Amino acid sequence: MKDEPIIQTTSLTKAYGPHVALDDLNITIPRGATGLLGQNGAGKSTFLKTILGLIQATSGEGTVLGYDIRNQGLEIRQRIGYMPEYDALNPDMDAIHQVRYSGELLGMNPVVAMNRAHEALQFVGMGEQRYREIGSFSTGMKQATKLACAIIHDPDLLIADEPSNGLDMKAREFMIGTLNTMVNDADRSVLMASHLMDDVERVCENIILLHKGTLAAQGKIEDLKAIDREIEIHVWGGATLLEQRLLDQGFKVRREGRVMRIAHTVEDTTTNILQAAADVGAQIRRMHEYEASLEDLFLAIMDNLGYNVKSSDDLLKSPVEARRVDAPESLGGGAA
Amino acid sequence: MNDKELSPEAPVTGQARMDVAWGANTGDEMPEEAQRASTPQTGEIFEQVYTPWRGQLNPRWMRNWSILRHHLLGIFKKGHRPWTMPTRIFILIAFLASLSDAGMTLLSGVVGSSEFHSLFGVSRDNLYGHVLGFFPRNVLYYPIVAALLVGGVISEDRQHGTSALYFSRPISRVDYVGMKFLSVALIQALVVLITYLLYFLAEVVAFGRGWAWMVDIFPMFLAGMVGGILLIITYTSIGLSLSSVSTGRFFPGIGLLAIVFGTKTLASIVKNLFEREILYLISPYDCVAHVGQALIGTQTTYDQYSWTYSLVALVAMNAVALYVLATRVASMEVTRE
Question: What is the pTM of this model?
Answer without folding.
Answer: 0.82
